[in-house]
């Protein structure tokens, strides 16, 4: 998916996501020609809410 699509899913500004990519904080980023693509599976696996929900369930 494009950076714009990923930013919409994550509900962050496009520039914020580009900065996170530059800092190496976003997994699954692939350069295709001049554009960047983010693998959907990597985005879902690394979403902050996923780990938090599983941690909450473990505590109960």
Automatic annotation (TrEMBL):
<protein>
    <submittedName>
        <fullName>Helix-turn-helix domain-containing protein</fullName>
    </submittedName>
</protein>
<dbReference type="Pfam" id="PF12728">
    <property type="entry name" value="HTH_17"/>
</dbReference>
<dbReference type="InterPro" id="IPR010093">
    <property type="entry name" value="SinI_DNA-bd"/>
</dbReference>
<feature type="domain" description="Helix-turn-helix">
    <location>
        <begin position="1"/>
        <end position="44"/>
    </location>
</feature>
<dbReference type="InterPro" id="IPR041657">
    <property type="entry name" value="HTH_17"/>
</dbReference>
<dbReference type="GO" id="GO:0003677">
    <property type="term" value="F:DNA binding"/>
</dbReference>
């Amino acid at each position: 998916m494009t950076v714009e699509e990923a930013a919409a899913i994550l509900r962050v500004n496009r520039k914020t996501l580009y900065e996170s990519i530059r800092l190496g904080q976003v997994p699954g980023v692939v350069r295709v020609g001049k554009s960047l693509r983010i693998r959907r599976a990597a985005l879902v696996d690394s979403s902050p809410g996923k780990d938090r929900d599983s941690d909450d369930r473990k505590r109960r």
